[in-house]
Amino acid sequence: MKRFWKLAIPLVAAVSLIGCANSQTAQPSENATQQQTDTNQSGGSQPAATETVYPLTVTDATGKEVKIPKAPQRIVSTSPAETEILFALGLDQQIVGVSDFDDYPEAAKAKPKVGGVVKPNEEAILSQSPDLVIGGISMEKPVAEKLKSLGMPVYVTQPKTLDDIMNNIVVIGKMTNRQQQAEQLVAGMKQDIARVQDAVKGLKPEGKKKVYLEFSPGWTVGKGEYLDELITLAGATNIASDTVGWNPISEEKIVKDDPDVILYADGITDNKTGKKLEDIIKNRSGWDQIKAIRDGQIFGMDQDTLSRPGPRITQGLIQVAKAIYPDLVK
Questions:
Q1: Cα–Cα distance between 190 and 169 in angstroms, integer?
Q2: Taking every pair of C-alpha atoms in the chain, what is the biggest distance, in angstroms?
């Protein structure tokens, strides 16, 4: 996953700078769930398992309608987060292709590879004869349009918040006739969120810690992204929250803001120097005066759990909350 971070950070930053005018929450054209009933011989009815009614039309994050004639049996995912969603919904047998960076769960490593997350290999995708292609936040619009022009249903996600991520799970569950599994998965994620919120609800404004997050050498994140939301839900203040989206850092500003806690993506190294991100942070000029570094409050977060907008993102929330408030979040 190290390569994915190096690729995705500047790309996501660029996407943010463009403005993501089309980055709306993906919404189904119909209600998120539909209940069917079975009628018994006496004329009464009883609820049956939640099933998707096909043909189905949904609208993806680009505002394009995606028509699905029947439950997909051959699915290609070009993004690690969406691949994790598909596996979490029990669709192992239906997944016939994943991106080069997909490594979780373990079974994803054995799936045929279809190239990168930005520009996946069209020929590799076509060779799998998919009846559904799912692209993540890194898929370029021209690529999605090209795949759609070839007659494939292509659903693109662009989650910005935890609600977006959970909604993606619900919609993907609907598209694949895995609604019950999707609802259960989202319910578990909401329990994780509630667990953290309950743990930090007693914090007073003056007791909230200031946090700095560096997810790649020289990059941090501000408002409007789920990484900022994780810090806020954890009861802390992101010192970069006065900015929007993904931003190159100002070393002087961070020293001035004097964060109580520093979080970084574990396992990241700088391409140019070969230095670990943790060492880069600790050895910057003047940063030894930052409270977080003086007090040893600098923590590496699992980069995949933190970066992928999929079902494990609330585990990332718990990790963040534990690092910031170990006495509160158990």
A1: 13
A2: 80
| β-strands 75-77, 45-47 pairing | unpaired
With beta carbons less than 8 A apart as the criterion, state whether 82 and 91 touch.
no
Radius of gyration over alpha carbons of the chain, in Å? 21
What are 158's two structure tokens?
């662009």
- Nearest Cα to 82, choosing from 9, 7, 168, 161? 168
Is residue 55 reached through a cis peptide bond, with omega within 30 degrees of 0 on the bond before it?
yes
Beta bridge partners of 223: 244
Residue 12: its pLDDT value, please?
43
75-77: strand order across its sheet:
95-97, 75-77, 132-135, 154-156
Q: Is the pTM of this model over 0.90?
A: no
For the chain, the average pLDDT equals: 87
- The pLDDT assigned to 310 comes to 97
Q: How far is CA 92 from the centre of its chain?
A: 20
CB atoms within 10 A of CB 123: 9
pLDDT of 46 higher than 50 = no
What is the arithmetic mean of pLDDT over 272-301? 96
Does pLDDT of 199 surpass 50?
yes
How long a stretch of residues is the chain? 330
Asked whether 80 and 310 are in contact (CB, 8 A), the reply is yes
Nearest to 226 by CA among 308, 169, 302, 301: 308
Least confident of 116-120, 123-127, 321-325: 116-120
Whose structure tokens read 């933190």?
306
Identify the band that residue 49 occupies on the pLDDT scale cut at 50, 70 and 90.
low
The residues, any chain, with a CB within 8 Å of residue 308's CB and separated by 6 or more, are: 80, 81, 84
Side-chain half-sphere CA neighbours of 165 within 13 A: 26
Q: What angle do CA 79, 84, 88 make, to 5 degrees?
A: 150
Cα 244–chain centre separation? 18
Helix ranges (H only) for 104-223 are 122-126, 141-149, 162-175, 179-200
